[in-house]
Amino acid sequence: MNSFTERVIEIILQIPAGKVMTYGQIAAYAGSPRGARQVVRILHSMSEKHQLPWHRVINAKGEIGFQDEESFFIQKMSLESEGIQFKDNKSINLQKYLFHPSNIIK
DNA sequence: GGATTGACATCCC
DNA sequence: CGGGATGCCAATC
Asked: What confidence tier does A1 reach under pLDDT thresholds 50, 70, 90?
């Protein structure tokens, strides 16, 4: 299945530990600048099947999107274990941890 | 093939 | 980066 979804997955897999990307960024690099929500949907559908590092995908504010606090906490711990430090209890320094792919996908 | 989904982005107050 | 409304797009159902 060669599609937007697959490119999104490829991009997510390229995010190095200790870095994060936003939904909008990923969508843009995958070819749809307005496709942030597709990324969300992909994570829901594919994360378990493809074993994606979904914990490295956050929203534009540098926060985890989860509303469920337990999942939120799990993701937060995952990020902290990769070296990302939270400023408050919920946000990270995007300018410091945001991953800027330059040539990961042709 | 149409309706639903979705952890967002962005504009506007 | 406070909070509500609106727009977006493609995979999934």
From this structure: low
**Which CA-bearing residue is nearest the C1' of C13?**
A45
Q: Is the dihedral of CA A71, A59, A16, A25 positive or negative?
A: positive
Q: Residue A67: pLDDT band by 50, 70, 90 thresholds?
A: confident
What mean pLDDT do residues A33-56 have?
86
Which residue segments constitute the domains of chain A, with CATH numbers given?
Answer: 4-97 (1.10.10.10)
CA-to-C1' span, A46 to C13 (A): 15
Question: Residue A51 CA to B2 C1' — how many Å?
Answer: 31
Q: Is the pTM of this model over 0.85?
A: yes
Distance CA A17 to C1' C5 in A: 36
